[in-house]
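$ fold --in a.seq
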Amino acid sequence: MYRCNSGYIPCDPQEEARWCQHEETLCGIIAQGDEFGAAMKQLWGVSKELGGVGEYQTCLEDKDFEHCSSFAVDAFIGGKFKILEKVYDELKLLKRGCRIVSKTSLATAARAGFTTTAVVASGGVPCGEHNVPGLPRSTDEIENSGGCDVCAENIKKSLGGGKIVHIKPVDEMYLPKYRGVDSGWQFHVVVVLNDRVYDAWTGRAGDSVAEYKAQWARHHLIDFGF
């Protein structure tokens, strides 16, 4: 249905050909679907055993100590990955020359069994700016808009780091006017990085905390979280 833009047969071969041009890898996978499926099944079987996913499945089904005893080990490994993820975010910023990875973070990673190497290089985007397509939006799009959580995740990914923060009203159901517009929002989601705030309307370089809060009416009645 996605390739043909329709659930009806026959599908337009021209549209299908265009899809293949834009999605060459996926089109190739579909063309050899049986072989790809068999390869993925084999790969999943190996990955499942290496990652201990098979034990998880058995534990959930049988709920016995024999198959669930590895949870403590897996929880420890999961903690390591959380540490690695945090350091990786900092290293992405370092690669762009935007942040110096703290000695504490590197020491924590070392204790967890990880070694890190970073090369300082420009990523082509100025530090503190994102390059999410379609942003910033017009203030005409504020009223009753949605998807601020997805937008924030895209901005964070483009920036190479940051903290996702939920903005909520205090003792009211809806947030007050934002940039002079009644938004109709019960909450809003933004990214905070290096004391700058980013959302779909701040611009690629974001606003300082003071500048951002000033964009809200009755901002003293808002729980910003920063």
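$ fold --in b.seq
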Amino acid sequence: MTLPTFTSILLLVQVIKKKERNLVKSLKIIFIATIVFINYFVIDDKTMTFVFLLFIILTLFFKKSSEIKLIIAKIVGLIIPFFLLSEFWLLTKNFGTTYLSLRLNERLSNRLFMWNWYYQKMGVSIFPPFNKLGEYNFWGTIDGSYTLLLLQYGILFAVTTCIALAISNYLLCKNGYYILYSIMISFEVGAFCENVLQFYALTFIFVFSICSLCPGWLRKE
């Protein structure tokens, strides 16, 4: 449900920003509400529900911007990719050593156990390992973009990706693109539990990271 959630966020932006006929606006709101309902109650995808709610919170945060808020947002944007990457590493490496990790594993649908299982099989290396995740058929797949970055592509690529994301977040905030900043942060946080960064229909995250390095890439005209 990652793509429908992304679509819902874009529609919400239109509802907030555009002046549209009441019927069109109502249909968009119904679609958004339906997606949120399906995410939470039908398929139990709480990660995408959290992503949607986080986007709303960030949007409200920027509703009345101030210098202090912008400084906080820039710092958060710089830190969040590296924080999530390091948290994956610590939680995976130390899984089972504390009661908290076991409870968190339950809350995250056994993801910590999954990550630790792959970690025990593959380890973490500087460069992409010779072994591939697909060679281990016990799980078949793995949930979590930062997990994939470290285990499948290595430390160098994972850190480079986080640098690109951090720079993108900072420049989006600095140049006043608060909606895009909110979208980026929301999905980067969601990527902790889902393969959002590598999801073929959501490669906009990497596209935004590259484009934000170019001055004036989103001029209003």
